[in-house]
Amino acid sequence: MKIEFKKIILSLVLSSSVAASAVFAQKPDALALYRAGKYAESVEICEQELLANPKNINSYVVLCWSLVGKKEYAKAEAKAIEGRNLNSTDTRLIEILAEAKYYQGKNNGALEYFQLYLANAPQSSRDIGFAYFYIGEIYIRQAKYQHADIAFSMAVHVEPTKYASWWSRCGYAREMAGAYESALVAYNKSLELDHTFVESLRGKERVTAKLN
């Protein structure tokens, strides 16, 4: 009788364990959803995670990434600030806050946080080039073309062979600063990466005319 009772208890324990494992395995992965471009679903999962654990920094990070993906920049900014109240040094949240401010036209605030990000991010971070690119765009907005040239030059130094658009913007900043020869170099670099890139084709035509 005792042996049968033990078998029943063991069977129940094993069944519960298998069921719990199945539930865990089926739990949606917010980061995977974000990477798949399913931003709304990712937001929903992250919000559920934060209800369960309001101090989960990773949930804040993925939530903010997904909100930026949905172009809900004001909400992304607010949630990034909430997350930074828990960990003010998390460079992921600093970069998200900078990006959210950038897309809302908050140029000075965005510039401040991009600079803070660059001062603290590890050199291996994949977002360093993007931070310099955004800084360049902010300076373009402010008509500070020499500053923009420096920022874009840093961006293409970090990622020299990836983005024709970065070289093109570098060329534009140089062109607007009156540095036509170096602008031509940047436009040519852009066209080496994408010979059909319209902005670079037009920019090259403009600066070539000015040099001649």
Number of strands: 0
Shape: elongated
Instruction: Find the structural class using helix and strand composition.
Output: mainly alpha
Report how far apart the termini are. 102 Å
pLDDT average, as an integer?
Answer: 90
Radius of gyration, in Å, reads 24 Å
How much β-strand is present in the residues?
A: under 5%
* Count of helical stretches: 12
Percent of residues in helices: over 70%
Order of helices and strands: HHHHHHHHHHHH
Q: Detail the poorly predicted runs.
A: 5-10, 12-25
The major pleated sheet works out as:
none
Protein architecture, described:
The protein is an all-alpha fold and 212 residues long. It is 79% helix and 0% strand. It has 12 helices and no strands. It has helices at 2-26, 30-35, 39-52, 57-69, 73-86, 91-103, 107-120, 128-141, 145-158, 164-176, 180-193, 198-211. Helix 5 (73-86) packs antiparallel against helix 6 (91-103) and helix 11 runs antiparallel to helix 12. The chain is elongated.
Helices and strands in order, then pairings?
Layout: H1 2-26, H2 30-35, H3 39-52, H4 57-69, H5 73-86, H6 91-103, H7 107-120, H8 128-141, H9 145-158, H10 164-176, H11 180-193, H12 198-211
In short:
The chain is built from twelve helices and no strands. With 212 residues, it is mostly helical.
Name a few traits of the molecule.
12 helices, 212 residues
